Amino acid sequence: MKLYCLSGHPTLPCNVLKFKSTTIMLDCGLDMTSTLNFLPLPLVQSPRLSKLPGWVLKDGNTFLDKELKECSGHVFVDSVPEFCLPETELLDLSTVDVILISNYHCMMALPYITEYTGFTGTVYATEPTVQIGRLLMEELVNFIERVPKAQSASLWKNKEVQRLLPAPLKDAVEVSTWRRCYTVPEVNAALSKIQLVGYSQKIELFGAVQVTPLSSGYALGSSNWIIQSHYEKVSYVSGSSLLTTHPQAMDQASLKNSDVLILTGLTQIPTANPDGMVGEFCSNLAMTVRNGGNVLVPCYPSGVIYDLLECLYQYIDSAGLSNVPFYFISPVANSSLEFSQIFAEWLCHNKQTKVYLPEPPFPHAELIQTNKLKHYPSIHGDFSNDFKQPCVVFTGHPSLRFGDVVHFMELWGKSSLNTVIFTEPDFSYLDALAPYQPLAMKCVYCPIDTRLNFIQVSKLLKEVQPLHVVCPEQYTQPPPTQSHRTDLMIDCQPPAMSYRRAEVLTLPFRRRYEKIEIMPELADSLVPLEIKPGISLATVSAVLHTKDNKHVLQPPPKPTQPPASKKRKRVSDDAPECKPLKPLLSGSIPMDQFVQTLEKHGFSDVKVEDTAKGHIVLLQEAETLIQIEEDSTHIICDNDETLRVKLRDLVLKFLQKF
Amino acid sequence: MPEIKVTPLGAGQDVGRSCILVSIAGKNVMLDCGMHMGYNDDRRFPDFSYITQNGRLTDFLDCVIISHFHLDHCGALPYFSEMVGYDGPIYMTHPTKAICPILLEDYRKITVDKKGETNFFTSQMIKDCMKKVVAVHLHQTVQVDDELEIKAYYAGHVLGAAMFQIKVGSESVVYTGDYNMTPDRHLGAAWIDKCRPDLLISESTYATTIRDSKRCRERDFLKKVHESVERGGKVLIPVFALGRAQELCILLETFWERMNLKAPIYFSMGLTEKANHYYKLFITWTNQKIRKTFVQRNMFEFKHIKAFDRAFADNPGPMVVFATPGMLHAGQSLQIFRKWAGNEKNMVIMPGYCVQGTVGHKILSGQRKLEMEGRQILEVKMQVEYMSFSAHADAKGIMQLIRQAEPRSVLLVHGEAKKMEFLKQKIEQEFHVNCYMPANGETITLFTSPNIPVDISLGLLKRESAIGLVPDSKKPKLMHGTLIMKDNSFRLVSPEQALKELGLGEHQLRFTCRVHIQDPRKEHEMVLRVYNHLKGVLKDYSVQHLPDGSIMVESILIQATAQSEDQGTKVLLVSWTYQDEELGSYLTSLLKKGLPPTTA
Questions:
Q1: Strands A550-554 and A513-518: what pairing?
Q2: Which residues cross the membrane (chain A) (predicted)?
Q3: How far apart are CA B582 and CA A542, in angstroms?
Q4: CA distance B164 to A517
């Protein structure tokens, strides 16, 4: 069993597991941090961005000044933003049989895999994962396509050139494989390959392996996966949460007894407490608005935003914010809000109970009804008429490189009354802000990451007791910025096996047994023999039928001809037909009894001689010699079949057959 | 021999109070727990004393499964769990769990508050009963215990309706509940995979009907409604609050919009608005088209259909009213019917099946003078139309489901005996499987012969699979192994491994036969002749002439010996082990016959 690691990003994994002749891809996350190296895509002409100076090499060489721009000491690529794909060369991706998706954040590279590698398999994901994943992809495509950019920079990617660039561009990996965003037809084609599954549904792959999604508690429809045969079990844990937010609680019990547990998608901010962060978010928001400033919340169109809206729903009246407009701007804002209300079966218990009443599970329905929350597809159109300040705006993209958020950064960045509050943990907020410097607006960092932290992981591992843990190398050492925090790493016995991008791990497995079925007719014909107390044996001769990796033993075919005619056939020089093999023999021959038996069967001249290892029995008249030792018997006789068979059967009486 | 037993307590050769007991591999499961609309006495509920005469329900039953929220499938549930007493798990889908208690409460109100019955279940009992319900997802494998598992499939009959697979080891039963094999305006079609159950228990409401296409029926329906409204008549459509009602509302709503009609459409108050809300929240259970467009337009928000008030019934002019219940056996639909029945301009459209004893059943069977309460005779002059809109599979659909699931036998419930008989013959003819149709209280026993799972050592399996790869795959290949039975585990290993595991040594049994050959030639020439002879006869075997002058046939050794005194006779020693017995014995008999004369 092998694990091919195609992504180096611990929360956006992409691994391929080869297990019992199946090739299974686990997630296909898209690393979007690459976009931080690019200039933002403004929705309306930005004089500031267009006036940024070109970057000049130390020696005064200006050949890159069209592609690279400088802003407050940082260098950015002035081009359509590009993404860092999972490794596509490590193995032939057209051989992948299935792709298992754990949550909607971990499927963003799907079109690159399904549309460009010759992939012909099936993708499995839950319905909310697919629906919300589609929204995230559509939003991404929309953000990038609606700001067409003529320039596509490529000079800087030249290895010789890249060496000369300042960090972080200099250290960016695999830049030659970075790709532009996919298109809507590609998204549709990719999503059409998905088959919907429900939690605890057992899905057979070629009869060899069974995969099962389990609730992981992190997002709507998010799942961990069990990949198992009758004897081996691999648990794939990706993006799980033990906090009670809106999704259904995590199913931990089903992870027990795993041979290998692959652990990815832990919290990216292990030192921050999500509850505390939500509190800080609310108080910063209230303070800014009270002082007449605006609040900008860069966010994804689904996920934490539901929880934030629910907190605000409870908070705004008591904080005196009832008259402040909340805007949610995204091409998929409406869809996201609507979809959140129809996945009752995937929600936590409290929300499910509300649906039974029947009431919408999320209170943002009421915020919309009372006009406190308004949603728009973009800043253009209706929004510009309704827009009132001070206000709170939720919009994407959290990288601050594209989407409506770019406009608000340009609009509000100059005033210290305004605040931008970062809640999504995927991007470093300082890097995100870099192309907007110098900035007067306040920046607050309240990352809310509900995924497992290291304390929860160690509790989880103690509980489910996997034989081996496999995880990204980042989890086996403290974070680079906090090297003394040895508590911020996975601690387990035996130590976790770690992987990095483009590595292939051989997983510690020894398969020894397989399931096989015995047909009842065959079972009836077996003759069990008790060898030791409580242990019985039966020799089995049967026809093995294998279909779809399922093995069945059937009774051997009955001879088609009566034995007499068979003998005649043999005489006619035909080779013997395939006959049941003789069993192995065990035991030893007791001399006295054997001699008695011989005499009883008409051998009157039995003579026994002792040898170093046993005895020799002589039957003089028959010119036969039988050498008998502890573990062997040798009958040497003339070519007299009747005699030989008689002696054979007498010897067999004393031996056990296997 | 393992067996599966099925006993209907309700719905055996009947429609109503569905309740079927299944025993499979020692597990007892109750499928549905319904009430009968045609009775008001003890017969309205299944006869649970069948179980309780031998002990408590909870001790006997491993679980209860409810297929959908119609009262003839869940109406007896609070009585069963709270009054007779059952504390085990009850499984149903999320929408069923949400809607079921509301219909039960409605049923209770009509029975207790309107008819004044006592000794009926209370609101609190409904609540307590629902606490025992475990909601299941579609296709989720629910482990009831270590051995018993159940799985729900989409049935398309009403919102949340499901078929259930009940499985223990390799034995399984599928219960369809009520299902529909053709997608309609709001629900999708039932679907099941080729799960090859030992038994398929299917409803058979429309066992003998093959319905014309849905589109024709819809057109007919709209035409009739339209004509009636055009001539100023009032149209009554008795429905159940959830299910057909929504489909017909969507149908009329789009028709009204297209034709720009002005006549009002009403939906009787109460459940309806709430019902539509359930459809909005459980939109993932509706058909693909509705799911796809729900963000732009939620099909369950109606523009033309308004809430009905009792006073509207006397308004002049045309109107269309949907009223509950669907079989005209009580409530608002019956009240309106009595008001409108006397006018031949009016029309009542029965869109579904009516149980015997209900007013709906009477007028559908042609009765035009009805005796109402207080000996009053009601003359029915209005037009009576029947349109089969109830979402049951017709004969074609039932056959289609059987084809999909490939069961080893079929059992029919939820239908009329005569019609079942017809379908039973058809099924037996077409699929060559046994088909049963037990009456209530009658037990059907089915013998199964499940394969026995054992563990096989990978070494043995791989060895045998490799042999299986040789070109001549027509000949069945035999596998040889030793089955070790210890405690309750069965392991099939190679004989060598079995010996090793048990700490036993092998005892080798070897034979050496002296074969006399008449041949005056030199020894090595004789051996060469033997070699050529064997090579010619044993084409499928490996025959080797070794450098030391001996011959190997597979693992059998043939050597010449100089022992003999007679120059004309040579002696061959043929030596083999017991495992090569067949070939060894064959060789000696072959050689005994001597060598063919040399042509040279």
A1: parallel
A2: none
A3: 18
A4: 26
**Is-contact B104 B126, C-beta < 8 A?**
yes
- Does the pLDDT at position B564 exceed 60? no
8 Å CB contact of B480 and A580 = yes
**What's the pLDDT tens digit per position in A541-597?**
888 888 888 889 999 877 554 444 444 444 444 444 545 567 788 888 898 899 999
| Chain A residues touching residue B274 (CB < 8 angstroms) | 358
Please say whether the beta carbons of A306 and A336 come within 8 A.
no
Residue that is written with structure tokens 């000079």 in the block: A155
Residues 443 through 482 of chain A touching chain B, CB cutoff 8 Å: none
CA A591/CA A598 separation, integer angstroms: 10
A635 touches chain B (CB under 8 A): yes
In angstroms, the CA A278 to CA A307 distance is: 9
**pLDDT over threshold 80, residue A327:** yes
Pairwise CB contact (< 8 Å): B513 & A638: yes
State whether residue A99 is helix, strand or coil: strand
Dist. CA A637–CA A629, nearest whole Å = 18
Beta bridge partners of B560: B572
- Judge whether B388 and B206 are in contact, CB under 8 Å: yes
* Cα–Cα distance list, B329 to A420, B370, B492 (Å): 64, 12, 64
The answer to whether residues B391 and B180 touch, using CB atoms and an 8 Å cutoff, is: yes
How many whole angstroms separate alpha carbon A114 and alpha carbon A186? 9
For residues A497 and A469, the answer to whether their CB atoms sit within 8 Å is yes
Q: Give yes or no for a contact between A347 and A246, defined as CB atoms under 8 angstroms apart.
A: yes
CB A627 within 8 A of CB A589: no
Radius of gyration of chain A (CA): 36
In whole angstroms, give the CA distance from residue B255 to residue A62: 70
Interval B468-485 mean pLDDT: 67
Give me the residues paired with residue B484 across strands. Answer: A537, B491
Nearest residue, CB atoms, A641 vs list B138, B458, B589: B589
Torsion, Cα of B555, B556, B559, B563 (10° steps):
140
Percent of chain A residues past pLDDT 90, beyond the cut: 68
Q: Distance (Å, rounded) from C-alpha A312 to C-alpha B441?
A: 59
Distance CA B295, CA A134 (A): 14
Residue A515 Cα, gap to closest chain B Cα (Å): 5
Q: Find tokens 């005994």 and name the residue.
A: B592
CB contact under 8 A, A539 and B454: no
Strands B141-143 and B148-154: antiparallel
Of the partner residues B514, B540, B579, the one whose CB lies closest to the CB of residue A581: B579
Give the lowest-confidence range in A97-111, B69-83, B573-587.
B573-587
Residues of A (199-238) whose Cβ lies below 8 Å from B: 199-202, 212, 230-231
pLDDT value for A30: 96
* Distance, CA of A299 to CA of B367 (rounded, Å): 67
The secondary structure of A148-216 as a DSSP string is --S----GGGSHHHHHHSPTTGGG-S-GGG-B----HHHHHHHHTTEEEE-TT--EEETTTEEEEEEE-
- Chain B residues in contact with A335 by the CB 8 A cut-off are 295
DSSP secondary structure, B483-533, as one string:
EEEETTEEEEE-HHHHHHHTT--B-EEEEEEEEEEE--S-HHHHHHHHHHH
Which of A518, A540, A632 is nearest residue B510 as measured by Cβ atoms? A632
Determine, for residues B281 and A520 on separate chains, whether the beta-carbon distance falls below 8 Å.
no
Residue B203 in tokens: 């409803």
Catalytic, out of B117, B147, B149, B203: B203
Contact of A103 with A239, CB cutoff 8 Å: yes
Closest C-alpha among A641, A633, A624 to residue A594: A633
